Amino acid sequence: MKFVCTFAQVAALSVALLGGLSAEETVDEETASRPKYPLAIAVDAAEAYVVDLDLPGVWKLSAEGQPTLFVRGSKWIRKPLNRPRCVAILPDGDLLIGDTPTREVYRIAAAGGEPQPLTAGGIGIPMSIAVDADENVYVADLETRTIVRFPLAGGKVETFAQVNTRGLSLDPQGQLWAVTQDKDQLVRIDSAGKATPVVSDRPFQFPHNVVVTDSGDAFVTDGYAKAVWRIPAGGKPEQWLAGPPLINPVGLAIHEGNLFVADPHAKNIFKIEIDSKQITPLIKE
């Protein structure tokens, strides 16, 4: 069998062997036009950003549903953003992105640029990020089964709460909510790190993330149930929306009366109007 390579392919392979981009990365750079595995979503008044686990990288999503690549991660396992899993938007427009192989949370300027590590590899498996008004960064660490905390400027990571957390969110009052893998599947956490159960007895099949409305209603994505749950303030959980087009709803954000759901199996982001339950796929075919 004969193998014929073009000059460009030989050059790409040479760069890979010398420690640069792999040949696979070079091809992806030229052909990537939409998210491969959209895992997380962050939305504010100006922008929407989508974490793509398999590209790997982060996309910026236009109002017209056109994704453009904001930052590309590396195919090399110990390089930044090799397996990004979570994202948060800061008030100045900068992003925080959690990456599992490098055990890190990176800050990237709104204008783009190189990812800046904040903890010197001080986090195990960052699954979700929340930032409070005092510039404390909270991270759900799947490896240690805790919520950890560090200053937004960067520095030492400390254990904040002994809660086995998968998804984190701050409500409009600044109180931390957490989706857990334990019997109490949804909890509120006070400033001292004490957890108060909101949902117990495991009604969710495989919960991922949570957001809370101004009225105190919570919404939780459930991948195995192909559903979004609603937990009314002071009430019991109800399966609020289920089935197609949702296949494996994971990432979750809320903005101006709308939920934004990242579904990696549907390879799309769904905008859901809370009042009407109208669903709109944001990434156009």
TrEMBL record:
<keyword id="KW-0418">Kinase</keyword>
<keyword id="KW-0732">Signal</keyword>
<dbReference type="InterPro" id="IPR051262">
    <property type="entry name" value="SMP-30/CGR1_Lactonase"/>
</dbReference>
<feature type="signal peptide">
    <location>
        <begin position="1"/>
        <end position="23"/>
    </location>
</feature>
<protein>
    <submittedName>
        <fullName>Serine/threonine-protein kinase PknD</fullName>
        <ecNumber>2.7.11.1</ecNumber>
    </submittedName>
</protein>
<dbReference type="InterPro" id="IPR011042">
    <property type="entry name" value="6-blade_b-propeller_TolB-like"/>
</dbReference>
<dbReference type="GO" id="GO:0004674">
    <property type="term" value="F:protein serine/threonine kinase activity"/>
</dbReference>
<keyword id="KW-0808">Transferase</keyword>
